[in-house]
Amino acid sequence: MPPSRARVLLGILCPAVLSGCSAGPYFVAENEPWRASEERACLASGVIRESPFIRTRATLGGPSVCGAEQPFEMAAADGGRVRLKPAALLRCPMIPQVDRWVSEVIEPAARHTYGASLAEITVAASYSCRPMNNIRGGHLSEHGHANALDVSAFTLTDGTRITVKRGWHGDLRAQAFLHTVHDGACAEFTTVLGPNYDRHHHDHFHVDMARRGPNGLRTVCK
Ligand SMILES: [Zn+2]
Q: pTM for this structure?
């Protein structure tokens, strides 16, 4: 078995201070060299510029397999105009994708459907050192690599608030808006999961930048 496919059973390495680890759930993680190489390429590209709303974080609580080499705290997107609340802890490759999702998908959808701009995104989760779906013994979630974002609601400049939980099967405007936002995310992220995927996602959209499949190019849009 080549090193990249080596599986490691973790748990005792998981620091108790980290969210999702305090109860000691074990998870399985693989040695995946693409993570570090993609992160370093992203950092070297200069695509991320520090600002009042994108700040570097020294650490996410390691050392452990969780976290990122250079994590960021993203408090707003689209040039600072759209708040992320609370601020999301993300690795470099996620940040330009979130920014594009906001400015090229969500904002146009808000203006088209509601005639108002997007003001705020409710972040249900970002970095969390835990197994997928919190199931003990599962594979380490992309959230553990700061490579995923869960979004549960969108607030517009006129005060309208659209939640995934109520809106996905709600009135026609909310349905149209949320389906456009969900489907548009599939052009920006390698994984997009919503309420149609499973019961764990009934109230939020999960987006991440995982590499999947034998050539790392398989995408998931559900
Ligand atoms: Zn998620």
A: 0.88
